[in-house]
Amino acid sequence: MNWIKITTVDVLQDDQVMAFKLPEAHLALYRCDGEFFATDNICTHQHALLSEGYLEDGCIECPLHQATFDVRTGAAQCAPATESLKTYTVKVEGDAVLVNLG
Q1: Contact (CB, 8 A) for 22 and 54
Q2: pLDDT tens digits for 20-41?
């Protein structure tokens, strides 16, 4: 597996999202109820950064057209988005947050 440390647990509080641009991917990292989740950071409906959207109850709202996605599964929750986001496995080791890009 291709695990990459992208941050530490203290960087994000619950219901926050942060962008990480890596050579392999442009990610959005979310913290919900103490757990971390990662998806592509680009909305599948139209090019917009999800990390600039509103995160609530495990869903991120696109700042451009208010499409929402479940950050746990990547599933599109409402129009205008119909295509799910790619998700990435996240794990915490000590205080490090690692994402599997493989």
Answers
A1: no
A2: 999 989 999 999 999 999 999 9
Q: Which CATH number fits domain 3-100: 3.40.50.720, 2.160.20.10, 3.40.190.290, 2.102.10.10?
A: 2.102.10.10
Spatial CA neighbour of 90 closest among 9, 24, 14: 9
Rounded alpha-carbon distances, angstroms, from residue 44 to 10, 26, 27, 89: 29, 13, 13, 19
pLDDT at 32: 97
The candidate with the shortest Cα–Cα distance to 75, out of 65, 83, 63, is 83
25: amino acid identity, one letter: A
**Does position 9 have pLDDT exceeding 70, yes or no?**
yes
**pTM surpassing 0.90?**
yes
- Other CB atoms within 10 A of residue 47 CB: 8
pLDDT of residue 2: 87
